[in-house]
Every structure is written in C-alpha cells, then in structure tokens.
C-alpha cells in the first residue's frame, strides 16, 4: 500500500486570478446511501485530469482516465495518483501517493498566472508516517523554494525535548502517547511534541 502524503495548498492571488481559477473547479453530483439507508447527494470535484488548469489529455481509456494514467499523473501531478478532498479558490487539500504533488501546484500557478502574474502558492505536506515533511512555494514561473525535513531530524528534535540522547535508539515498545517529563519538567506526549515540531516548521518556512 502506498504511503499517503497529506497536503494543504494556499493560493495568494488577486480577485481576478482567484475567479479564473474558481471557474475551473468543476464538480459533479452522485447519489449514495448513508449509514441509515437513506439516499443522499454527494458533490465531488471532477477528476484532476479533467480540470481546465491541467495539461490536455491526449487519449482516455474505457474508464475516462488518461491512457497510461500512471505516467500521465507522474509527469503532470507529481504523484501516481492524487485526491483533492477540499477545494476552494484560495485553498485546496487532499492526499497523494508517495510524494507531494508539486507539479500539480505548478500547473495551478501557471494557469492563474495568465490572469495574475503576481500569484504565489504555498503547499505544506507531510508523509503519513512523518518520514518527511515539507513546504513548497510556487509562482507562475515554477517552483521558487522547497524546504524539507526528514523523519530522523524530527525524531532527533523530539529526543532533545525530552533529554533523550540523539544516538539512543527508540525501542519497538516506545509509547508515543504516554506522557513523559520534558527538559522543562512538563509532562507531555512525544506524539504531541512531534505535532508541534511539524507545525512550527511549517510556520517558520511560511514567514
């Protein structure tokens, strides 16, 4: 099973630029049954390869996906598949397989850039197992900056917070949700500290 890489995309653009992008966010509706057995309408964003800000697809298979879908998504999205769960003109979020969808963001920036050449898009992302976390800033001309931190760096910072030697290997029985006393004498969960480290990293890179 592929690792999920969760991401948040924030778009800084003019009203005209955001309007041009909003017009590409075409949705479809389908009927499904909820847990009570009642029918309900679900609104979904069209498939990424069908959205107007993406490069055109040269051909589709019987299911409406690009021929050689894997290669198309690698080249035009930056991951072998990608799902946008939330979509608004200024913010999108979702998850992709194995890597952050940097090329997807570059396509969005290039599209909005035709209307607003000052557009700037920031994406934060994290591997589901925190093997890496990162921040990407993209303009209409492509990727501007990339800052990434790997899991070993995160773990080292967490250890320092609790006064654990960086060289000490954590055992398989290490409980990430059991409170420990940190170097300031405060009881905290290691997982909570890891969360703070990630969000602090995101905040520092976005300033």
Present the secondary structure layout.
Blueprint: E1 4-12, H1 15-22, E2 27-33, E3 39-45, H2 69-76, E4 82-87, E5 91-97, H3 102-113, E6 120-127, E7 132-139, E8 142-150, H4 151-162, E9 180-181, E10 187-188, H5 190-206
Antiparallel strand pairs: 1-5, 1-6, 2-3, 4-5, 6-7, 7-8, 9-10
Helix pairs in contact: 1-3, 4-5
Please give a quick description of this structure.
The chain has 207 residues and is an alpha+beta fold. The chain has five helices and ten strands.
Overview features:
single chain; 207 residues; alpha+beta; six-stranded antiparallel β-sheet; 5 helices; globular
DSSP strand content: 25-35%
Oligomer: single chain
Major β-sheet strand ordering: 4-5-1-6-7-8
Which sequence of SSEs, written as H and E, runs from N to C? EHEEHEEHEEEHEEH
Number of strands: 10
Helix content range of the residues, please? 25-40%
Cα distance, first to last residue? 35 Å
- The number of distinct helices, counting runs of at least 4 residues, comes to 5
Mean pLDDT: 92
Main beta-sheet strand count, sense and barrel state: 6 strands, antiparallel
Low-pLDDT ranges: none
Give me the secondary-structure category: alpha+beta
Radius of gyration: 20 Å
3D shape: globular
What does this structure look like?
The chain has five helices and ten strands, in the order βαββαββαβββαββα. By secondary structure, the protein is α+β, with helices and mostly antiparallel strands. The two termini are 35 Å apart. The mean pLDDT is 92.
